[in-house]
Amino acid sequence: MAIKSFQGKRDTSQGKEDAQILVSDYMTKKLITFKVEDSLDHVINQLITNKISGGPVVNDKNDLIGIISETDCIKHISESKYYNMPSDVNNTVGKYMVKVVDTIDKDMNIFDAASKFISSSRRRFPVVENGKLIGQLSQKDVLKAALSVKGNTWNS
User: Fold this and answer.
1) Would you tell me how many other CB atoms lie within 10 Å of the CB of residue 139?
2) Which of 23, 66, 85, 115 is the right S-S partner for 57, CB 3.0 to 4.6 Å?
3) pLDDT-based confidence at 93, cuts 50/70/90?
4) d(C-alpha 89, C-alpha 12), whole Å
5) Are the beta carbons of 68 and 34 closer than 8 angstroms?
6) On the CB side of 19, how many CA atoms lie within 13 Å of its CA?
7) What top-level class would CATH report for the domain 23-151?
8) Hey, what's the torsion of the CAs at 148, 149, 150, 153, to 10 degrees?
9) Cα-atom radius of gyration of the chain, to the nearest Å?
């Protein structure tokens, strides 16, 4: 009697994930935010105290209107020192924030988000729903997600 095949019935679920790992699973929900009228000194103090590199700027309705980063603050410091000018007390977040902000969807797969980080060279993406800030995803959050997947499904 001849053996036709040593292969058994193929498992059709092999290689497929049961559930996607979404941005909403790993995004930070408790954020340090800034207002347009905040001083840059306040922002710098918050960045240092909380060991963060930037944060979203929101209005009173929690609508995302910009983002401020260490780089934005350093630009201000560099310009004022270059021209040997004292730091202006009217230097506010509104003057130095980036107003056009790339955001990310809470329902995006975490690995698609990783690709977006690579292609944009950004360190963080605000997560917005109906114009309202609901969280933020950082590169570190993507790394945490990758470690959790490795622990569950990847071979070590």
Assistant:
1) 14
2) 66
3) very high
4) 65
5) yes
6) 6
7) alpha beta
8) 130
9) 22
